[in-house]
């Protein structure tokens, strides 16, 4: 992503692990560099590394609209000294949103549709997708993935251990995206991490 935005970076090291949290502002609502991003229209393939964040999201996602508040530069990354780890970011999370099916209906949706069945313009415009932006995103693993294997577990968070008063060394709450769902509630995806002593 090529946007030159101010990003607040916080880094925390513990043992062989480094946590990096990036926080910035909401994504622009339109292209910020049309001369670079619109090259594809002239028949030349676009190098994704030069696209502005807005155009990258538009190109990578098959969603008819993006969440109202999208923090494209926000991320939380946990990396081992050997180069592998896990990262949480909005783009990868939104790639898992169902872009083909409208799985959630509000109470009045059926009545609204019936009242407009005769209007072909409305039927042709609506592209069904999961407008609640539900995602089953669990992070993006990277580097040296052959060194570890992700497997299902029955282990749970030790709640008793969390009750012990410990010094907080590192705390981050990173919002990846948020949407008010056309006044039908709120959808938000955020990542929180606490480092205790």
From TrEMBL:
InterPro entries, A to Z: Phosphatase_reg/MetRdx (IPR051330), TIP41-like (IPR007303)
GO cellular component, one term: cytosol
A GO biological-process term: TOR signaling
Pfam families: TIP41 (PF04176)
Source species, domain of life: Eukaryota
Membership in a protein family: Belongs to the TIP41 family.
PANTHER family: GAF/PUTATIVE CYTOSKELETAL PROTEIN, TIP41-LIKE PROTEIN
Name the record gives this protein: TIP41-like protein
């Amino acid at each position: 992503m090529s946007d030159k935005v101010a990003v607040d970076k916080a880094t925390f090291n513990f043992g062989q692990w480094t946590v990096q949290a990036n926080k910035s502002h909401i994504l622009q609502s339109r292209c910020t560099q049309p001369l670079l991003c619109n090259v594809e229209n002239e028949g030349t393939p676009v190098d994704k590394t030069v696209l502005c964040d807005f155009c990258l999201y538009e190109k990578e996602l098959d969603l008819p609209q993006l969440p109202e508040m999208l923090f494209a530069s926000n991320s939380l990354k946990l990396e081992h000294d050997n180069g592998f780890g896990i990262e949480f970011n909005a783009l990868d999370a939104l790639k898992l949103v169902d872009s083909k099916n409208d799985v959630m209906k509000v109470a009045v949706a059926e009545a609204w549709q019936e009242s407009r069945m005769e209007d072909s313009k409305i039927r042709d415009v609506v592209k069904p997708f999961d407008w609640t932006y539900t995602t089953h995103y669990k992070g993006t693993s990277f580097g040296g993935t052959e060194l570890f294997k992700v497997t299902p577990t029955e282990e749970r968070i030790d709640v008793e251990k969390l009750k012990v008063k410990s010094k907080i060394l590192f705390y981050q709450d990173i919002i990846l995206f948020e949407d008010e769902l056309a006044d039908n509630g709120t959808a938000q995806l955020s990542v929180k991490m606490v480092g205790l002593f």
